[in-house]
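#lab-general

N.A. 3:47 PM
ok so I finally got the sequence cleaned up, no stray characters, all 222 residues accounted for. can someone with queue access submit it? mine expired

B.Y. 3:52 PM
send it over

N.A. 3:53 PM
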Amino acid sequence: MNIKKNLEAVKKTFLNPGCVLVAVSKTKPLADLQEAYDVGIRDFGENKVQELQAKQPEMPEDVRWHMIGHLQSNKVKYIAPFVHLIHGVDSFKLLREINKQGKKIDRVIPVLLQMHIAEEESKFGFDKNELEEMLSSAEFATLSHVKIQGFMGMATFTENDAQVRKEFRSLKTLVEELKNRELPAFVDLMDISMGMSGDYLIAQEEGSTMVRIGSAIFGERS
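B.Y. 4:20 PM
back already:
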């Protein structure tokens, strides 16, 4: 397996050169991460807090760590000091906790709100009503130590490209609608994280600014 070759192959197919490539390094050994780092990757995505904590001190300081998995509120404190971006904020409870931990260490923590766009039940995320409820609550406007950088969504795991495209498009449409609204200053909708190894090209066509790619770079999961 040649990580450099894989990366070059993935980059060649990119439709939008400005799209951020987050290398999903979960379950991968540090040697693989270092190899990707040596050919220019700085954004790494992990889905378990414990693994993120273990790898962070072992890698160069300029690595940008992305928490891409489902995050439990009681584990926020372990990554709050260094995480670059939390992708999967799927409840107001979790956002409150991130804000609380940010306050404790006087750090504004960048996050993405995860929307449930897939037609399958197994995915986490806000539905439109829950999002609306949170955005219009008085408490939301008082958050001081989070920066909402945009949204994240995962499409249904299916061979049906039309369905995947429709789901990605629905997220882009939502973001465009929200841009026309009066929202607190800490809401800065610059990023849409959508697309993984199997569907990142469709995601880019539908406006993704950030894709999460693992197996196409590192091979199948260890």
